[in-house]
Amino acid sequence: MTAADNCLKTEFAGVPFKNPVVLASGTCGFGREYNEIFDIQLLGGISSKGLTSSPRSGNEGIRVWETAGGIMNSVGLENPGVRGFIEKELDWLNGLDLVNIVNLSGHSMEDYIGGAELLNGVRLDILELNISCPNVKAGGMAFGVKTDVAREVVRRIRAVCKHKLMVKLSPNAEDIVALARACEDEGADGVSLVNTFLAMAIDVEKRRSVFENTYAGLSGPAIKPIALRMVHQVAKAVHIPVMGIGGITTWRDAVEFIMAGASAVQIGTGNFIDPALALDVIAGIESYLDARGIKNIAEIRGCVE
Hints:
alpha/beta, 305 residues, TIM Barrel, 11 helices, 33% helix, eight-stranded parallel β-barrel, four-stranded antiparallel sheet
């Protein structure tokens, strides 16, 4: 282990990372395709495609739409289901030298609980609970919008989940700081933020929304300044670790999130711009620290008041 390697080592909820860079859920599948481009074991971790208790085919129509400074997506959680993931992907992921984060989604409380219970019987490093999903039994409002609803989801999942629990927060929440505090109160080991912003695109020729579901999730560089602000606010308000997400496409972006208080970062849309972008980000952070004689990245974490 070199001094340079040591400078990137970090920890999240007691889980050691060789570096703080993670591929974000929904942007890297389960890592196999990216591993054909570069050795994904150079990453700190990978967050799986969002899983639901049963397989889902996803949304009809257009799923991805490019916009200024980012993309919009309405994929609809297409995935093989928790059992399919366990049977076909889990052993491969657990055989890699990186942190295995499994993202769990759901459209009802029963979905979440069923998925969490299935995952209790397997090895993984962190369960990332995505509460940005629409609650189909409550008119479609996302679980992560209202603090009291999110609190109930986290409380019930914490009661059954045997793994480290990280809750992925929606920027569409009525009060993201209160939401983060509620997650901490209910036993979350950490939080990740932000998920996509609710957005819209219109086809002026067809005179209708581009997406079948009318609205979609906006991600990419366009959201970075807002995501950074939210990470800063949450990191100052909770005592559990924060994983920063939102428009990270350069090492400078990543360092900003760490200075705002993040212990690690996730790269999402940037993977579509350059599939090996994460390696440039890792190298850039390392060079930044080395040039300034910083022995470990923890020295700059949360340094911005």
